[in-house]
């Protein structure tokens, strides 16, 4: 992670109904539980109608603006293949893109996830991608599990914690 | 809840918590992004909250509660204040007894609105106190302060938030509850509460005197503060821009305005005089810079290009650098659209087939302007579908006038449609008129809120229900048709277009996103659908 004065910047993006905001809530909650300063910001006015949705999560010693400055995302996590291109400008040079396998080219630091060959489903792959993201961050599994539990109904806890664990195995 | 406990809350959630801690007797408002979650949260943590048919009603209910010596919270989006503007201006004269706080949630950049009006103008226009939080902690603290000031100076206080404050989560430390121990009670005082000219003239003078005293408070208020720094650059700012500024220019001297009306003019004058270059960084209109210049404070504003949209760290760097080169165009995302499977989608195919001139309104159905329908001809403000349609019918040649239809949703009809129906019955165009209500049984666009036509309260309990077809018939609309599917609807439209009659067509099918929930509420209420 970054030094004390520079927060870690993460942008999550996708389409309405995919669980972008939920994933951002889980990520922000993990940073909160871990004792970081954290800010989370989103534009979700009409997201329920299938439009583009994105959320910024920033954490560290001290976070000021709730918005990730343009082109300064350390990590860009995109839940829908059509939403990669229009969000790439958020990623800083050398930043990490995490997305689903799709129509775009693979290269650089991009990690892709093909949910067809995995135990993940369209309902929990956002948590699977959070698992993959977690391998880049320093929060303990206990912290992540607690964050998942706080943001999902009890009956899907087990399924999502399994999705999280699976996501962690996808490191290249 | 433990005091001083660390919590991760959005600005909206922080306002709700502060309202609970201040013993707010009633929260009321009309749903509107980005304000909606405040009352929903307030209700879910134990506050008494209710949706009003519209913002004017909500504000008047809040004023009455405050006149009765109880605390009221009223919430709405920025354009909602336009609807509530009538009581808004005169409540500044009457003042209040219990605290009255009005949240105006502005939407710079228009994430989900029809305009980006800057409601800081309203505080100055009416003479009402306005506080502007930057984040969730300030939203909590300033909500509490707003109730204290409202009671100390007997004046309503506006908490002006923006989308980035409402919908951004941050860590907050809440205080201890401070619930007033007193009974609600009304003391008659016609000179204060009856605004006839004879009482309103002295009331206006009282208001200006009060604002002078609040101006003195503002000069010493801790929410208006200077952050000392490098003297070569001094930035005066407010709201969320304060955080962007601190991040973009950590070395600069900064003056944070927490009370945007009345302003701490002398304190800002002193700050401006202490720096080599004084720059005002504000989102939206140049309100702050204009006020400072009027007071003779030498300061620089932003270029006109930064009036539009939200500010952020990179844009503020450009403002400071006086960079007016064209900005990179915003990345094009996928626009929202009418849900696949929405039972109301077909209405637009039908109207298009009959080559109607479609006077639209505010709600999900506004999205019919997008492909594949591209079938809405206007969208101005809540309720204007009916009335603007009537105006067109009066002016257009008969053959064209007959094609004009007005279309709006159930919640919008409750909000501002009834007076439009009255106008239609009272001043009927000679070709008649057709109003269509797409009744999906919820305020869908803002996230499935209840309204008087659903017959359920904010927390989904059974209550009185307004039945549109009965109201329309009672008001004198002669041709009222209720339809539930494409063949019925098509037939009703076709027949209405061939008559010169005042027609209301109600297309009634529950929102697909809400239907499971609505069925559960109705079951719990012991009613069947």
If you had to describe this structure to a student in words, what would you say it looks like?
The complex is a heterodimer of chains A (172) and B (529). With 172 residues, chain A is of the alpha/beta class. A six-stranded mixed β-sheet of chain A has the order 2-3-1-4-5-6, covered by helices on one side. In chain A, a hairpin with an 8-residue loop joins strand 2 and strand 3. The relative contact order of chain A is 0.18. About 5% of the residues of chain A have low confidence. Chain B folds into three domains: 215 residues, Rossmann fold (3-Layer(aba) Sandwich); 96 residues, Rossmann fold, CATH 3.40.50; 180 residues, 3-Layer(aba) Sandwich (Rossmann fold). In chain B, strand 6, helix 7 and strand 7 form a beta-alpha-beta unit. The two termini of chain B are 39 Å apart. The chains are: A alpha/beta (172), B alpha/beta (529). At the A-B interface, helix 1 and strand 2 of A face strand 8 and helix 11 of B.
The rounded Rg of chain B comes to 25 Å
Average pLDDT metric of chain A: 86
- Shape descriptor of chain B reads globular
Query: Helix coverage percent of residues of chain B?
Result: 25-40%
| Name of the CATH first level of the largest domain in chain B | Alpha Beta
Give the termini separation of chain A: 19 Å
What is the string of helix and strand elements of chain A? Answer: EHEEEEEHHH
Tell me the domain tally of chain A: 1
Give me the CATH architecture of chain A, please.
3-Layer(aba) Sandwich
Q: Which class of chain A in CATH terms?
A: Alpha Beta
What is the CATH topology assignment of chain A? Pyruvate-ferredoxin Oxidoreductase, domain 3
Rounded Rg of chain A:
15 Å
CATH architectural group of the largest domain in chain B: 3-Layer(aba) Sandwich
**CATH topology assignment of the largest domain in chain B:** Rossmann fold
Structural class of chain A, please?
A: alpha/beta
Question: Poorly predicted ranges of chain B (pLDDT <50, ≥5 residues)?
Answer: none
Percentage beta strand of chain B: 15-25%
What is the overall number of helices of chain A?
4
């Amino acid at each position: 992670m970054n030094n004390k004065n520079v927060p870690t910047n993460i942008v999550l993006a996708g389409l309405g109904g995919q669980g972008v905001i939920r994933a951002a809530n889980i990520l922000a909650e993990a940073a909160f539980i871990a004792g970081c300063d954290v800010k989370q910001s989103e534009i979700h006015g009409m997201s329920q109608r299938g439009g583009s949705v994105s959320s910024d999560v920033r954490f560290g010693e001290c976070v000021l603006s709730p918005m990730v400055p343009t082109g300064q995302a350390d990590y860009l996590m995109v839940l829908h293949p059509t939403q990669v291109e229009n969000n790439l400008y958020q990623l800083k040079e050398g930043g990490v893109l995490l997305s689903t396998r799709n129509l775009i080219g693979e290269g650089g630091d991009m990690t892709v996830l093909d949910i067809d060959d995995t135990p993940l489903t369209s309902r929990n792959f956002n948590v699977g991608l959070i698992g993959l993201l977690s391998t880049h961050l320093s929060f303990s599994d206990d912290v992540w599990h607690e964050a998942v539990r706080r943001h999902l109904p009890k009956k899907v806890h087990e399924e999502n914690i399994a999705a999280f664990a699976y996501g962690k195995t996808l490191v290249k | 809840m433990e005091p001083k406990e660390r919590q991760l809350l959005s600005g909206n959630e922080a306002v709700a918590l502060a309202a609970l801690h201040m013993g707010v007797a009633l929260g009321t408002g009309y749903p509107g992004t980005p304000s909606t979650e405040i009352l929903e949260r307030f209700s879910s943590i134990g506050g008494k909250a209710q949706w009003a048919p519209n913002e004017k009603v909500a504000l008047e209910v809040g004023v009455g509660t405050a006149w009765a010596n109880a605390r009221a919270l009223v919430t709405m989006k920025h354009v909602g204040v336009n609807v509530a503007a009538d009581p808004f201006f005169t409540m500044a004269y009457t003042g209040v007894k219990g605290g009255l706080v009005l949240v105006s949630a502005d939407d710079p950049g228009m994430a989900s609105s029809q305009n980006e009006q800057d409601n800081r103008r309203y505080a100055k226009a009416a003479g009402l106190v306005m506080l502007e939080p930057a984040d969730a902690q300030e939203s909590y603290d300033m909500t509490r302060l707003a109730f204290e000031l409202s009671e100390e100076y007997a004046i309503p206080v506006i908490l002006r938030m923006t989308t980035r404050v409402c919908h951004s989560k941050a860590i907050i430390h809440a205080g201890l509850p401070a619930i007033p121990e007193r009974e609600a009670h009304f003391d008659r005082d016609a000179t204060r509460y009856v605004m006839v000219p004879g009482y309103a003239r002295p009331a206006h003078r009282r208001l200006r005197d009060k604002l002078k005293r609040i101006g003195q408070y503002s000069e010493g208020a801790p929410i208006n503060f200077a952050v000392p720094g490098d003297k070569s650059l001094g930035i005066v700012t407010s709201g969320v821009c304060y955080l962007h500024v601190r991040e973009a220019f950590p070395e600069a001297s900064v003056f944070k305005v927490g009370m945007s009306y009345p302003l701490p003019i002398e304190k800002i004058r002193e700050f401006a005089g202490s720096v080599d270059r004084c720059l005002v960084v504000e989102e939206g209109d140049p309100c702050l810079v204009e006020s400072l210049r009027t007071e003779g404070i030498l300061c620089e504003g932003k270029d006109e290009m930064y009036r539009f949209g939200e500010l952020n760290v990179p844009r503020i760097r450009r403002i400071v650098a006086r960079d007016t080169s064209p900005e990179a165009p915003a990345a094009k995302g996928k626009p929202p659209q009418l849900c696949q499977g929405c039972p109301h989608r077909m209405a637009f195919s039908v109207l298009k087939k009959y080559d109607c001139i479609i006077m639209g309104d505010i709600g999900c159905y506004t999205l019919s302007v997008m492909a594949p329908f591209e079938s809405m001809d206007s969208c101005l403000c809540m309720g204007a579908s009916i009335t603007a349609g009537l105006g067109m019918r009066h002016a257009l040649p008969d053959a064209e006038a007959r094609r004009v239809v007005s279309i709006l949703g159930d919640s919008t009809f409750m909000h501002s449609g009834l007076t439009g129906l009255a106008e239609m019955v009272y001043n009927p165009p000679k070709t008649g008129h057709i109003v269509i209500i797409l009744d999906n049984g919820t305020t869908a666009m803002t996230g499935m809120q209840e309204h008087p036509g659903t017959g359920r309260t904010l927390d989904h309990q059974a209550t009185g229900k307004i039945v549109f077809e009965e109201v329309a018939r009672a008001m004198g609309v002669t041709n009222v048709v209720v339809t539930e599917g494409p063949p019925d609807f098509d037939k009703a439209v076709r027949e209405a277009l061939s008559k010169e009659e005042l027609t209301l067509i109600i297309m009634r099918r529950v929102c697909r996103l809400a239907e499971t929930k609505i069925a559960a509420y109705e079951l719990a209420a012991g009613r069947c659908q």
